[in-house]
Design brief:
The protein is an alpha+beta fold. It is built from eleven helices and nine strands. The protein has two domains: 92 residues; 231 residues, BirA Bifunctional Protein, domain 2 (2-Layer Sandwich), CATH 3.30.930. 41% of the residues lie in helices and 18% in strands. The structure holds 3,4-dihydroxyphenylalanine (DAH).
Length: 345
Amino acid sequence: MSDLLAQIEEIEGAALGQVQASADLDALRDLEVATLGRKGSLTSVLRGLKDLSPDDRRAAGQRSNDLKRKLQEAIDRRRAALEEAEVQASLEKDRLDPTQPGPPRAYGHPHPILAMQRELAQLFESMGFTVMDGPEVETEYYNFEALNIPSWHPARDMQDTFWLKGGGVLRTHTSGMQIRAMQERGAPLRVVALGRVFRNEDQDASHEHTFHQIEGLVVDEGISVAHLKGVLDAMLQGVFGEPVTSRLRPSYFPFVEPGLELDFECRICKGKGCPTCKGTGWVEMCGCGMVHPNVLKAGGIDSERYTGFAFGLGIDRLTMMRYAVPDIRLFMSGDLRFLEQFHTG
Ligand code: DAH
């Protein structure tokens, strides 16, 4: 009897301490098996009860059952504590802070040519112009004939044209929109059209096969070159942010009479002469003039009652001048190192 009690006490003394000392769930599980399991130390003690006298058996039975219960409770408590600690540790490891700002998001931005087109459109809208859109695949009629350039006219050679099978062309300029505008809207009229144009050019730093133009057309009673100059000067001021000195000089385009060219004072040397303006002090900006009566007629407008002016210019060149871009091919290069310099957002 005393043997058994001694064993029980020994188990109690050791096991309860071991429960607290178990560092993890596996160790605790092992301990549980080693004491309360089928072959565990306390279980084998209980097996020895049958050899005792009934009184001793009761006393020792009671004692060992108490211990069994105490041990089981201690193990359960320790297990709950270890499990809780494990959850805490994993929360600590994968810590998530929902108040932290997310990683910065990369936003795109308009291409510099598109940004310039939008700016020009807005500028002309503020002067009462309507912005029109038109086809890039154009008929020979709108691109040439209606603009007073019949098929035999040498002016056709001024533009290296992409001809399409079946007679269409990739529009070589936006001037065809003059005819479409007059036919669609009639006089009086104030429109601009912006977009891509195409020429079969040998490419270099100032020539691209695909580039962009803005065309302007005003038709009304009593329109003169003074109106033309006023509108173009307003455009220059809008683009460069301050008044810009300009001049008109005679030129030739079949769809205007007189035909003119507008130059503005070189912004690098202020008119003194430098490599940018090839020493002249002036930079060519656009072709323009008073709309030829044949063109008004092709647009269905009474050329006795109405006069008009028109102008057309390259948006790529304008953008190059504003930002001092040295090579027109950069615009179509897709080179992000170039394009991202225009990220303003
Ligand atoms: N379409 C001409 C070109 O691409 C530019 C031009 C000249 C447009 C005179 C006009 C104009 O409207 O009046 O070379």
